[in-house]
Write a structure and sequence with these properties.
Pfam families: Glyco_hydro_2, Glyco_hydro_2_C, Glyco_hydro_2_N
CATH architecture of the largest domain: Alpha-Beta Barrel
CATH class of the largest domain: Alpha Beta
Radius of gyration: 25 Å
CATH topology of the largest domain: TIM Barrel
Family: Belongs to the glycosyl hydrolase 2 family.
Organism: Fusicatenibacter faecihominis
InterPro entries: Beta-gal/glucu_dom_sf (IPR036156), Galactose-bd-like_sf (IPR008979), GH (IPR017853), GH2_Domain-Containing (IPR051913), Glyco_hydro_2_cat (IPR006103), Glyco_hydro_2_N (IPR006104), Ig-like_fold (IPR013783), Ig-like_GH2 (IPR006102)
Helix content: 10-25%
GO biological process, one term: carbohydrate metabolic process
C-alpha cells in the first residue's frame, strides 16, 4: 500500500511527522507505592534500564523478572523542536499499556488511561519546551480478576492455560506533530451493493474554521496507478458523513464477473484501495493522512456466512500471539509477518486472535495478505459493576480503533463464560452480554458478533462450539445423531456445558466448531495438550487428519478453528513450538485442511 511505512504503529492513519520512542528507558519498581508521594515525576530515582515496549517480565526487556510488581515507573528524555509547534500540536500515543497508566511531562501531570489493550493518546503541547523534555510514566497493575486481563495469570505461578502476567508498556510509544486543524478519525464502511464507500469524518477544528463552508476534506481513491475518484466534502460540523463511488473498470476480475464494478477483498484476492485524505481551507492543505480500504461484505444468510455474497467456509486457527522471549509483545514486525505466512502455509484462511488485541501492524498485514480475523476481547474473570464498566469502555475503544480493517470479519467479545460464569442462568449477566452485542451492532451493522464463544450463548449471530474430542468417529457420530440435543440448553459434551443459555433458543444461525484439536507430543509429562499426548509424527498426523476430517464432514457446520498456532509457555499443543518451528510437515497439514470433503466440498 502507498501509505505503508515499516514499523509505523497505526498503518491505517498515516502521517509523516512522527518519532518512535521505543528503546531504552529508565525504569524502577515501586513496590511500596511511594513514587507519587515522593514525586518521582520531578526527580526520577530508578536505577534500572528497560527496553520498551517489552515488559519487565520478558527477556527482551533486559530485566526478565516474572514476579508480581503492581507499581512501576518509566522515564525518558525526548527532544522537541518548538519551531514545529507554531501551527501544530504534539501528541504522544501509547499503543498498549496494562493497566492504569499515568503520564507526567516535565513534572506536570498530563493525564491517565485505564485499560491494557486499547490505544490512547495525550496532547502534551502546553507542557513541552524547545530542546530536552522529561517524560515520566507510572503504570499500576494488579491481579484483580475484575479487570480485562485475557490469558494473564492472577496468582504467582502459571496454571492451566494462564501465563505470566503483562505489566506496563507492551506496545509502541510514539510522538506525532499534528496540525492545529486536523482529521482526528475516519470511519470507512464499504457498501458493496451500491459500489460505494461510506465515510464518517471526525475533525478537530474550532467552529470559526468551519464557518462559511471554507473547510473541507478531499478524499482521493486510487487502485494501483489508476485514479478511481476524488471527492470533496464540506465540513459543516466536526462530524460529517459522505459517500464515495468506487465504481470503475475492473479488467474483468473473476470475482466481479463484469468489466465495470469494484475489486473485492477476499483471502484468495485481497485487493485494497489506497485513499488519501486532505484537510483543505481556502485552497491550502492543512493536514494529509494516508490510508486504505477494501470493498468486501460479510453477512449472515440463514445458516450460511457469506463473503461478498458467496458462502464462506472458514478454516481458522487459534492464535494467542505469544513469543518465548517477549510474551504478548511481538519481537518485530517481521515476526508478525512470519506468523501470518506460516499460518497460510498450514492451509488456514483465517485465525481467531484469542484473548488479545494484537499490534495493529498485524492487522495491516492480514489485510494485505488476505487473512481472515476474528477479533476477541481479553476477558475479566469476575462479574461486578466495575467489571462491566471497564469491559464496556475498553471494548468500545477497540471496536472504534480497528473498525476499518477489512480482515476483521467477526467480533468476539466473550469466550467460554469467562467473567460471566453464571450467564447460563443469571439474568443480569445475560443482559450484560446482550447489551454488548447490541452496542457493537449499533456501531457495526455488518460484521457478525459472537456472544459467548464456545457455549452458553445468549444473543449471537453465530453459534460456536468448543469440543476437544480426540476420536474422529466419536465426534462425527455425536454431531450427526444428537444435533437437536446439541443446539439446545442441554449439555452437549463432556465439558458439562450447553450451547445456549437458559431462556434462549437456536434460531437457525450458522454453526462453527471454534475450538478443537489441541494435540500435544509426549515429552515426559512436562506441559500439556488436550486429550492423550501422541508419541510420533505419524500418530500426530493420523489423529489430526481423523478429527479435522470428522469436523468437515458435519453437514451443518460452516467452519472450524484448530487449537493452536504455537506452544505458549506450559501449553504445548501448537502446530509450531515457541521458536516457530513446525512440529510436522506443514504441507501435510495444508493438504488435510484444504481437502474437499463432506457437504461443504463445493464451497471450500
Amino acid at each position: 500500500m502507498k501509505c505503508y511505512k515499516k514499523d509505523y504503529p497505526r498503518p491505517q492513519f498515516v502521517r509523516d511527522n512522527w518519532v518512535n520512542l521505543n528503546g531504552t528507558w529508565d525504569f524502577g519498581f515501586d513496590d511500596a507505592n511511594q513514587g507519587e508521594k515522593e514525586k518521582w515525576y520531578e526527580k526520577f530515582p530508578g536505577e534500572l534500564k528497560i527496553e520498551v515496549p517489552f515488559t519487565y517480565e520478558t527477556k527482551l526487556s533486559g530485566i526478565q523478572d516474572e514476579r508480581r510488581h503492581d507499581n512501576i515507573w518509566y522515564h525518558k528524555t525526548i527532544t522537541v523542536d518548538a519551531s514545529k509547534l507554531t501551527d501544530n500540536r504534539l501528541l504522544i500515543h501509547f499503543e498498549g499499556s496494562d493497566f492504569h497508566t499515568k503520564l507526567w511531562v516535565n513534572g506536570a501531570y498530563a493525564g491517565d488511561h485505564k485499560g491494557g489493550y486499547a490505544r490512547f493518546s495525550f496532547d502534551i503541547t502546553e507542557l513541552v519546551k524547545d530542546g530536552e523534555n522529561e517524560l515520566t510514566v507510572k503504570v499500576e497493575d494488579s491481579f484483580n480478576t475484575q479487570q480485562p486481563r485475557g490469558k494473564q495469570r492472577w496468582i504467582d505461578e502459571n496454571f492451566g492455560c494462564w501465563y505470566v502476567q503483562t505489566t506496563g508498556i507492551w506496545k509502541t510509544v510514539w510522538t506525532e506533530y499534528v496540525p492545529d486543524i486536523r482529521l482526528d478519525y475516519v470511519k470507512m464502511t464499504p457498501n458493496l451493493h451500491d459500489m460505494a464507500l461510506e465515510i464518517e469524518y471526525q475533525i478537530d477544528a474550532p467552529e470559526s474554521a468551519m464557518a462559511g463552508g471554507n473547510l473541507m476534506v478531499v478524499a482521493t481513491v486510487t487502485f494501483g496507478d489508476m485514479l478511481i475518484s476524488k471527492t470533496m466534502t464540506v465540513m459543516t460540523s466536526d462530524h460529517t458523513k459522505t459517500k464515495i463511488d468506487v465504481f470503475h473498470k475492473t479488467n474483468g476480475q473473476a470475482n466481479c464477473g463484469m468489466e465495470w464494478g469494484v475489486r473485492t477483498w477476499s483471502p484468495e484476492s485481497p485487493d485494497l484501495y489506497d485513499i488519501t485524505f486532505e484537510v483543505v481551507s481556502d485552497g491550502k492543505i492543512l493536514d494529509t493522512v494516508g490510508s486504505y480500504f477494501a470493498m468486501r461484505e460479510i453477512r449472515i444468510d440463514g445458516s450460511n456466512i457469506l463473503l461478498n455474497g458467496h458462502p464462506l467456509y472458514q478454516r481458522l486457527i487459534l492464535d494467542q500471539g505469544y513469543w518465548k522471549d517477549s510474551h504478548l509483545t511481538p519481537p518485530s514486525e517481521e515476526a508478525l509477518i512470519e506468523d501470518i505466512d506460516k499460518i497460510h502455509a498450514l492451509g488456514y484462511n483465517g485465525l481467531r486472535k484469542h484473548q488479545k488485541i494484537e499490534d495493529e501492524r498485524f492487522l495491516y498485514w492480514c489485510d494485505v495478505k488476505g487473512m481472515l480475523v476474528w477479533s476477541e476481547m481479553a476477558a475479566a474473570y469476575e462479574y461486578s459493576d466495575y467489571a462491566v464498566e471497564e469491559f464496556t469502555r475498553e471494548w468500545l475503544e477497540i471496536v472504534h480503533q480497528n473498525y476499518n480493517h477489512p480482515c476483521i470479519i467477526t467480533w468476539t467479545p466473550f469466550n467460554e463464560s469467562w467473567g460471566i460464569s453464571q450467564v447460563e442462568t443469571e439474568p443480569m449477566q445475560q443482559h450484560f452480554t446482550e447489551m454488548i452485542y447490541h452496542l457493537t451492532k449499533s456501531i457495526d451493522r455488518y460484521r457478525p458478533v459472537i456472544v459467548n464463544d464456545g457455549w452458553e450463548h445468549t444473543v449471537s449471530d453465530i453459534i460456536t462450539l468448543h469440543d476437544y474430542e480426540e476420536v474422529g468417529e466419536t465426534f462425527y457420530k455425536r454431531y450427526m445423531e444428537f444435533k437437536e440435543q446439541i443446539l439446545t440448553t442441554e449439555v452437549y459434551h463432556s465439558s458439562s456445558k450447553s450451547a445456549l443459555a437458559n431462556g434462549f433458543a437456536y434460531k437457525g444461525q450458522p454453526i462453527i466448531i471454534s475450538e478443537y484439536g489441541g494435540i500435544a507430543f509426549n515429552n515426559d509429562d512436562s506441559g500439556w495438550g488436550y486429550g492423550n499426548k501422541v508419541n510420533t509424527k505419524e500418530d500426530f498426523i493420523r489423529r489430526f487428519d481423523e478429527i479435522t476430517t470428522a469436523v468437515k464432514e458435519v453437514p451443518y457446520c460452516c467452519g472450524f478453528c484448530y487449537t493452536q498456532v504455537s506452544d505458549v509457555q506450559q501449553e504445548i499443543n501448537g502446530l509450531m513450538d515457541m521458536d516457530r518451528n513446525f512440529k510436522v510437515d506443514p504441507k501435510v497439514i495444508k493438504e488435510i485442511n484444504e481437502r474437499k470433503v463432506g457437504y461443504w466440498r463445493s464451497y471450500m
